[in-house]
Amino acid sequence: MQTRVTEILGIQYPIIQGPMAWLTNAEFVAAVSNAGGLGILGPNAGQTTITRDPQETAERMRREIQKVKALTDKPFASTLVVDYDLTYTWPILQVVIEEKVPIVLINGILDERIFTPLKEKGIKIVYRPGNPTIADAKAAEDFGIDIYVATGFDEGGTVPEKIIGTFSIVPMIVDAISIPVMAAGGIGDVRGVRAAFALGAEGVFAGSVFLPTVESPAHQSVKEKIVNATAEDLLLFRTLPAYYRSLPTELVHQIVERDQAGASREELAKLQNGGVGMFKGMVEGNSQEGFISVGTGITPIKAVRTVQEVVNELMADFK
Ligand SMILES: Cc1cc2nc3c(=O)[nH]c(=O)nc-3n(C[C@H](O)[C@H](O)[C@H](O)COP(=O)(O)O)c2cc1C
């Protein structure tokens, strides 16, 4: 069944696997695209070491893009993180254009300098701001982006600063613009997909549900923890820019303790150690020094499945 989202992106089902720092290598992304959804390479895709060099960052992304192309002939996307400092964005933009990546996920702000070259090359743009607002959605529509992702506070990863759940943010954005809106945050099974469509979304954008899959680069112990957990296990703490949630680890217990003692957001963010804490916790399975970021939709996930099985279940109504 075609929807505006499947038509724009040239995919079979209206489902996108969201970028997840460190946790989206070529094999995983290609598996999502081969299953009929859209796989997206996220920051540090396929990497096991950190580089701070923008050119090297882009060349690593080029190698991962080339691997995806070898594994699938279906559409896939790369992430462009766009903030006020474009040091890392420029070289990745160049690589995306040179490698003819058909779709880009923009995470961050709308910037004409990035947007215009993408449009000129006919690259489709999915825009997922960290903080969706009515004004931002209208501006994005005026800019000419193809699809807007409305993310609720239920999501895994860095949550929006305003505490608006997926159930509330999706209809709010749907009513504000006429381009297709996809729902992100807390979608764990086909009931979540149905709810998103009932709220006016024309597709779903999911991360956590893809983590405990055979193809996911997450550590085996992390996959097991996710399938054995419910949303009640999640711990929420203050950090920068707002809040973060994680399954319990030794590190997270320490952060929560400092949070309850009134520590500053800066101190808590330092303890959390951003991408390093995610890499240690989720790729290495190190619960002393890392965290396990997932959304509140994990409760119905009860087994480690293949990506194809996850897509089949979520997209049951689109067969
Ligand atoms: C472990 C993890 C890491 C994430 N990293 C990123 C990231 O680097 N960039 C980004 O734009 N979104 C990131 N996200 C958000 C996802 O792309 C997606 O929006 C989110 O997972 C949707 O909510 P859900 O997890 O409840 O499905 C991350 C999510 C998770 C769970």
Helix/strand layout:
Blueprint: H1 4-9, E1 15-17, H2 26-34, E2 39-41, H3 54-71, E3 76-82, H4 89-98, E4 103-108, H5 112-120, E5 124-128, H6 134-143, E6 147-151, H7 166-174, E7 181-184, H8 190-198, E8 204-206, H9 220-228, E9 235-238, E10 243-246, H10 250-260, H11 265-272, H12 274-283, H13 307-314
Parallel strand pairs: 1-8, 2-3, 3-4, 4-5, 5-6, 6-7, 7-8
Antiparallel strand pairs: 9-10
Helix pairs in contact: 2-3, 3-4, 10-11
Features:
single chain; 319 residues; alpha/beta; TIM Barrel; eight-stranded parallel beta sheet; two-stranded antiparallel sheet; 13 helices; globular; binds flavin mononucleotide
Question: What can you see in these coordinates?
Answer:
The chain is of the alpha/beta class. The protein folds into two domains: 4-216 and 302-318, Aldolase class I (TIM Barrel, Alpha-Beta Barrel); 235-283, no CATH class. It is 39% helix and 14% strand. It has helices spanning 4-9, 26-34, 54-71, 89-98, 112-120, 134-143, 166-174, 190-198, 220-228, 250-260, 265-272, 274-283, 307-314; strands spanning 15-17, 39-41, 76-82, 103-108, 124-128, 147-151, 181-184, 204-206, 235-238, 243-246. The protein has an eight-stranded parallel β-sheet. Helix 8 links the parallel strand 7 and strand 8. It is globular, with a radius of gyration of 18 Å. Bound molecules: flavin mononucleotide. This is Probable nitronate monooxygenase.
